[in-house]
Specification:
Layout: H1 2-6, H2 11-25, H3 33-44, H4 48-77, H5 86-95, H6 97-135, H7 143-148
Helix pairs in contact: 2-3, 2-4, 2-6, 3-4, 4-6, 5-6
Length: 149
């Protein structure tokens, strides 16, 4: 368990963890981000608790960006017009999940395409900005660090 907490605590890994956690945390499919962040942490050898913390902290932003992703997707890729508010979408999901999925399927796919276009640049920018800042923060030494010195 302690190893899980210590994995990926270099400044570069922490910056990548934050960048990837934010990018995946705003993925325009509610409920998918925990799995996506877990997969990213395993594949990129990032700190799993840290990326999930970022994911959960960014959750309100996911809800705020959901409709803008859909609207931008419509403008860029065409398709039906989504004229719903977030409250109307949530009410539609609560009343008839199947019908809501049918209505929102195309808009969601276009939103994912927009996210795929934007998120790599967001991760890169966050990584480049955060890495030098995190390098200035003194990180705790692990027992392995003291034996190597």
């Amino acid at each position: 368990m302690l190893e899980l907490l210590r994995q990926g605590i270099t400044p570069e890994k922490i910056a990548l963890c934050i960048g990837v956690g934010i990018a995946l945390g705003v993925f325009p499919v509610v409920g998918a981000t925990t799995l996506l962040c877990t997969l990213a942490a395993v594949l990129l050898r990032l700190n799993l608790p840290a990326i999930q913390l970022v994911n959960y902290l960014i959750y309100p932003l996911q809800l705020v960006l959901l409709l803008p992703f859909m609207h931008l997707g419509e403008r860029l890729f065409g398709g039906g017009t989504v004229r719903f508010s977030l409250q109307q979408i949530l009410a539609m999901i609560r009343s008839d999940l199947g019908q809501a999925l049918v209505i929102l399927w195309g808009a969601t796919l276009r939103a994912i395409l927009v996210w795929l276009c934007i998120s790599p640049f967001a991760v890169l920018i966050l990584y480049l900005v955060l890495t030098p800042l995190i390098r200035k923060i003194p990180l705790p030494r692990t027992p392995a660090d003291s034996t190597a010195a």
